Amino acid sequence: MQFGEAREKVYQRLFGKAESVYHEVFLLRPHVDVFTHARSSPQGKVCALVTGGMSDLPMNVPPAAGKAAPRRVELIFYCSEPKQEYLETLRWLARFPHDQNAWLSYWHTLPNGNPPAPVCGSEILDTFLFMPTIVKRDQDLPKQLILAGDPVHFLWVVPISSPECKLKLEHGFGAIVDLFQRHRHPHVFDPRRKSYV
User: Fold this and answer.
1) Could you say which of 58, 60, 120, 145 has the lowest number of CB atoms within 10 Å?
2) Which stretch of DSSP H or E encloses residue 111?
């Protein structure tokens, strides 16, 4: 509860008051809610869907990852409207490292099944890429939220296609960054987006 109060105070500073909270009904550990925060932009309303609770527990980060690898994270997803599937997907992703005794960090990919199935209303985007957020104000989270001595980082959830994932796995995260820059990849999710590869 103490972590939750601290986290929500920081979220209010970053985003303002939440429009809604998708509460987890079951008493699971960690308890993961998903907050919907609305922002205005030149393109219209943008929603930031943010998990709350994933950082209550540190992840099982292997020593080989080094001290720079975040032990506590929350997920952020930018969209034009908070669809139920988005909220449920974020909660599932937030529970994944704790349920599997694993970890998620920047540039990790997680396919949606084997073989991967499309996600979030897309016909071709079937894998999740976790990136540093490109929204400047949201990059301040590690400076503002420290739980049990660990700074909390946002992982930006970006659905990608299998060919894009293959490019990243074969050529490194720099290749996917270059690809996104060439195509001016927006931070707001578009389920109609075509694969860049």
Assistant:
1) 60
2) strand 109-111
Q: What is the pLDDT of residues 91-135, one digit of tens each?
A: 999 999 999 999 999 999 999 999 999 999 999 999 999 999 999
User: 132: cis peptide before it, omega within 30°?
Assistant: no
Distance, in Å, from the CA atom of 172 to the CA atom of 99, rounded to the nearest integer, reads 27
**Residue 73 domain-assigned (yes or no):** yes
Which tokens hold the place of 172? 């490194």
Query: Could you tell me if residue 192 is inside a domain?
Result: no
Q: In this structure, what are the phi and psi dihedrals at residue 3, rounded to the nearest 5 degrees? A: -65, -40
Q: What's the structural domain count of the chain?
A: 1
Q: Does the residue 139 lie in any domain?
A: yes
Domain that holds residue 149: 2-182
Measured in whole angstroms, the distance separating CA 173 from the mean position of its chain's CA atoms is 17
Distance CA(88)–CA(85), nearest Å, equals 5
Torsion, CA 28, CA 142, CA 82, CA 98, rounded to 10: -30
